[in-house]
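User: I'm new to structure prediction. If I give you an amino acid sequence, what do you actually give back? Let's try with this one:
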Amino acid sequence: MDKQILVLLSQDSRRSQRALARELGMSAPAVGERIARLERLGVIRGYGVRLDWSAAGYPMTVYLTITAVQGYQQRDLVEELALIPELEGLDIVTGAIDMLARLRVRDHMHLRQLLMDRIWQIEGVQRTETALSLVEIEPKNLVAELLAAPSGEPV
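Assistant: Good question. You get back a string of structure tokens that encode the predicted 3D arrangement of the chain. For your 155 residues, that looks like this:
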């Protein structure tokens, strides 16, 4: 039942407990208790909205590979990068690079300013490579796909 709740919430996190209860054939208090438990366990970490970044004034998605200075504390670099408002996501990765950042910018000049005035000024950044997203494919609902698949894994 928890998986079904997660799938339904992933499709529309604004659904009321009463609406969820109707769809699942449960009482609203029972659904509320399950949701509260999933939140306490950290399975549900929050609720959000999907933005149209172009409409919000940030039409460019930029992927930035970052190579850190040898021996530089990764934690310090992550903390510095986290201060950048345009940083949407940051992953520490394996391979020839150390990190992969996802940025949202207004235009090429904004990107240039961000690179030159902020990112390249961070002490632990040795090298970066930039890739501009040409088309952003609508993300699939991974929650629904993975949790609906018979895996035998409990939630």
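You can read the tokens as a compact description of the fold. Here is one thing that stands out. The chain has two domains: 2-48, 60-132.
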